[in-house]
Amino acid sequence: MVAGDSFSARFGPLTELAPYHLMLFGTLLGTELYQSFVMTKVCYDALTMSAFTSLQKRVFPVYFRLQSILFLLTAATHPPYGPLSLVRSPGDLIPLAFGGALAALNLIIYGPRTQEMMVERIHQGKLALIHDEGDRR
């Protein structure tokens, strides 16, 4: 390259948002499909209920955080100008805002509630087991 080339000529491919946006959206979609339709089904079939519940207690918080981060990064890399492009294009903003709102609900409301219900279910199972053993005596 000639010394007089501009910054955009040298680093243009690195500063374009479209490839990053596509990669992040693909990662978001792939993780959601894998978690929802592959991992959950395989683990549910292969593990005992207590092992499945223990696994889900550990996976859900990580998954919900990753989902939220990927939605934010997908919105931030919307081509050609990031979030400014979304404001100018409501057709792109609405589905992304809807998905982002659902990810936020998962992270803030449904994730913690699911955790609480899993713990409560484990305690109920232990109490039922203690009750059953008491009846046998």
Description:
There is one protein chain. By secondary structure, this protein is mainly alpha-helical. The protein has helices at residues 7-15, 18-46, 49-76, 83-88, 90-136. It has five helices and no strands. α2 (18-46) packs antiparallel against α3 (49-76) and α3 (49-76) runs antiparallel to α5. The model has no long low-confidence stretch (mean pLDDT 86).
Q: What structural category arises from helix and sheet content?
A: mainly alpha
Strand % is under 5%
C-alpha Rg, in Å? Answer: 23 Å
> What is the mean predicted local confidence, pLDDT?
86
Runs with pLDDT <50, length 5+?
none
The termini sit apart by 87 Å
**Major β-sheet, in short?**
none
Shape: elongated
Number of helices: 5
Provide the fold topology.
Blueprint: H1 7-15, H2 18-46, H3 49-76, H4 83-88, H5 90-136
Could you name the key traits of this structure?
137 residues; 5 helices; mainly alpha
Provide a brief overview of the structure.
Helices cover 87% and strands 0% of the residues. With 137 residues, it is an all-alpha fold.
